Amino acid sequence: SGKIQAENPGEKEGASGSEAVETHKHSAQTAVQETGRIFTELIKSIEKRWSEATKLIRAQEKAAVNRAEEIMKNLEREIADQKKRDDETEVLSHTEDPIQYLQ
Asked: What is the pLDDT of residues 19-53, one digit of tens each?
């Protein structure tokens, strides 16, 4: 039973070939997972920046509206004061004794 078994070179290459295929599959899967992780982080970062930008725009909008409302109130007060002065001037112009009216 001193048989020498000849190796089939195709068997060895087949085994190492399937190992190479598995290695490539594993590398591809790792690359897909890593790419997915990176894109997920990018999406989260973009969403965070978008949220921050939206909050900033809303805050600026609120400040601008408040300023505009304050200016309008001041103008309305000035108009009312001017109307009151105009009315008093009108009354004085029709009064025979403006000094007595003012007292």
From this structure: 889 999 999 999 999 999 999 999 999 999 999 99
Tell me the DSSP string of the chain.
--PPPPP-HHHHHHHHHHHHHHHHHHHHHHHHHHHHHHHHHHHHHHHHHHHHHHHHHHHHHHHHHHHHHHHHHHHHHHHHHHHHHHHHHHHHHT-S-HHHHH-
Are the C-beta atoms of 98 and 92 separated by less than 8 Å?
yes
**With contact defined as beta carbons under 8 Å apart, do 92 and 101 qualify?**
yes
Task: Tell me the pTM.
Answer: 0.54
Q: Which amino acid is at 39?
A: F
Q: Residue for token digits 């003012």?
A: 102
Residue bearing tokens 């989260």? 44
Kindly report the backbone phi and psi dihedral angles of residue 2, in degrees, each rounded to the nearest multiple of 5, phi listed first: -95, 40
Residue 90, token pair as written in the block: 């009108």
Domain ranges of the chain: 11-102
